[in-house]
Amino acid sequence: MRSLLIMILPALLLASGCSVYKIDIQQGNTLEAEQVEELQTGMSREQVAYLLGTPLIQDPFHANRWDYVYSFKPGGGEPKSQHLTLHFDNGTLSKIDRDQFRDYKELYSPTNEGLPDTASQSSGGGNTGPAPPRTPPGGGLPTP
């Protein structure tokens, strides 16, 4: 029992001081408001696909319906989503359902939680580029 405690205790102490970085997760079609505003009823499927790209969901049971779905879950935050549904009749766009559509720019705001703040760090002397090559004493070729 004592040896088990000795093995577990360092792991618990080490884990308690570490934080876990959670990544941002994006999935789906990224649509901006400017693209969606260009949609007009009467457009062909090809015109819509050229403007918005192919939809994420193509339901085989509803061939006349295209769903553009995008979801964004910031690391450690609440998920956000947008949904645009297009309906076609005889190959032309007949209805645009924007009820659940929000601009991609409103949804996407990546987080930097858990990352060091590099903007506030000073690099000393204001030089942010790579260091120049060093020339050895007595001439010769520079070394990196």
UniProtKB/TrEMBL annotation:
The keyword Calcium does not apply. Residues 104-144 are annotated as: Disordered. Its main location: membrane. Keywords: Cell outer membrane, Lipoprotein, Membrane, Palmitate, Signal. It is found in: Cell outer membrane. It is a lipid-anchor. Gene3D superfamilies: 3.30.1450.10. One of its GO terms (molecular function) is protein-macromolecule adaptor activity. Coiled coil: none annotated. The keyword Ligase does not apply. GO terms for biological process: Gram-negative-bacterium-type cell outer membrane assembly; protein insertion into membrane. Belongs to the BamE family. This is Outer membrane protein assembly factor BamE. It comes from Thiohalophilus thiocyanatoxydans. The gene is bamE.
